[in-house]
Structure formats: structure tokens, C-alpha cells
């Protein structure tokens, strides 16, 4: 009888553990599964500065830059953005400790490049961050939610000059900039996102893989300013 009670109690404990795990674990893209939050990459393959073609979020002269390798159709990137970005912006960007540059990777879907171009077009009207937030809030299944007309509707919701935005998007004027980002990330062999490279003026750098919590970004940025 005592043995049976122990077995039952053990089974209950295991069931609770699995239930808690299912509640806190995000649903993520199979192709771009982020690795353990504490995992870091060797920096040997990341010793070149990315091309400066993407809009800069924050003070361009901030002492530290966070390069975020990103696709707006990546659910893992959305999870990181939803759970960490606002605090990173508040603690690091708004205090001028760091700025953030989002870099495009090999596209997850057919619409990924057009979506990225839309963010550049929004940046022309000083609404880059607001447009990013709109994209992540609206994200759905890959290639179902952000066609050209929908991207223009997002611009309307943000009160952008729709003629300027539409002409920008339809012209593909930022296509080469997006491709430059993709070529750079491909040269590094980036396969899993989100991925982050943090650099400072001294040339020091640190690379994070996966949905890294905000506190680790703060630790690295603070250390890089000493």
C-alpha cells in the first residue's frame, strides 16, 4: 500500500512538471528553433561589422549596438519581441546605452523580403518601431497575413502618408539593402534565429543565440561600457 501511494504521488508530481513546462514553453518555428537561453556562440565567425543599411533604433552614437538577426514571419522572433523588447528599449535604448539594428536573414517565406522593405518605407516617415510592433502584433501563419495591400493597410492604421508609403513599397527601392543584409548573414552561416550580436566602439563583441532574456542583454551592455 505504501509503495502504491509513493508511485501515485510520483506520477502526480511528474504530471505537474509536464503541465508547467507546456505552459511556459513557447510554440516556435521548427526550422528556426532557438537554442538554450544561456547558450552563446564563439565570436570567431562574427568578427566583421554588418553593413550599415538598416534603420537604427535609438541614438546612432550610442556606445553599444545590438544587431538582431530577424525575420518578421519567425514565431520565435515574435516571442522574443513580445517578452523582452519593450524592457530592452526602456532600459538600454531610451537611456542611450545602446541602439538596435535589425538585420534580415534568408527569408522564411515568399513575403518576408517585402515585409522588411515595408519597415524601411515606414522609417522614411519616422515610424519604423511602430510599424515593427504592428507587424509582430499581426503575425500569422507564414505568407498568409502580409501581402502588399495588407502592408499598406498597416501604414494607414499608423497614419502614414499612404501615397508616399505605397510608392516606396511598390518601387522596391530598398530591395538591395535587404539583400545586403541577407548576403551578410549568409556569409556568417546564420541558420537559427533569433540571434544577436552585441558590439561596442572598442571592437568587443558578444553573440547570443535564441530567445535571450532582457537581463542578459543588460549585463553585456553594462560590461561593454566599463
From TrEMBL:
GO terms for molecular function: isomerase activity; oxidoreductase activity. It holds the Pfam family Thioredoxin_4. The chain crosses the membrane at residues 7-24. Residues 54-198 form the Thioredoxin-like fold domain. Keywords: Disulfide bond, Isomerase, Membrane, Oxidoreductase, Redox-active center, Signal, Transmembrane, Transmembrane helix. The keyword Repeat does not apply. The keyword Transmembrane helix applies. Belongs to the thioredoxin family. DsbA subfamily. Belongs to the glutaredoxin family. This is Protein-disulfide isomerase-like protein. It comes from Nitrosopumilus maritimus (strain SCM1).
Amino acid at each position: 500500500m505504501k509503495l502504491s501511494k509513493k508511485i501515485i504521488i510520483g506520477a502526480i508530481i511528474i504530471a505537474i512538471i509536464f503541465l508547467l513546462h507546456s505552459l511556459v514553453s513557447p510554440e516556435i518555428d521548427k526550422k528556426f528553433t532557438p537554442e538554450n537561453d544561456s547558450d552563446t556562440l564563439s565570436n570567431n565567425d562574427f568578427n566583421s561589422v554588418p553593413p550599415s543599411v538598416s534603420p537604427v533604433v535609438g541614438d546612432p552614437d550610442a556606445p553599444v549596438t545590438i544587431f538582431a538577426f530577424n525575420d518578421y514571419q519567425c514565431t520565435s522572433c515574435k516571442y522574443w519581441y513580445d517578452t523582452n523588447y519593450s524592457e530592452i528599449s526602456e532600459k538600454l535604448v531610451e537611456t542611450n546605452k545602446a541602439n538596435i539594428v535589425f538585420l534580415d536573414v534568408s527569408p522564411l517565406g515568399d513575403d518576408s523580403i517585402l515585409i522588411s522593405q515595408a519597415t524601411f518605407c515606414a522609417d522614411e516617415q519616422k515610424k519604423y518601431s511602430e510599424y515593427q510592433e504592428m507587424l509582430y502584433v499581426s503575425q500569422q501563419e507564414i505568407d498568409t497575413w502580409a501581402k502588399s495591400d495588407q502592408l499598406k493597410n498597416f501604414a494607414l492604421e499608423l497614419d502614414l502618408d499612404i501615397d508616399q508609403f505605397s510608392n516606396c513599397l511598390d518601387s522596391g527601392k530598398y530591395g538591395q539593402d535587404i539583400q545586403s543584409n541577407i548576403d551578410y548573414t549568409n556569409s556568417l552561416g546564420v541558420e537559427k534565429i533569433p540571434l544577436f550580436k552585441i558590439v561596442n566602439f572598442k571592437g568587443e563583441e558578444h553573440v547570443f543565440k535564441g530567445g535571450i532574456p532582457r537581463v542578459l542583454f543588460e549585463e553585456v551592455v553594462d560590461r561593454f561600457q566599463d
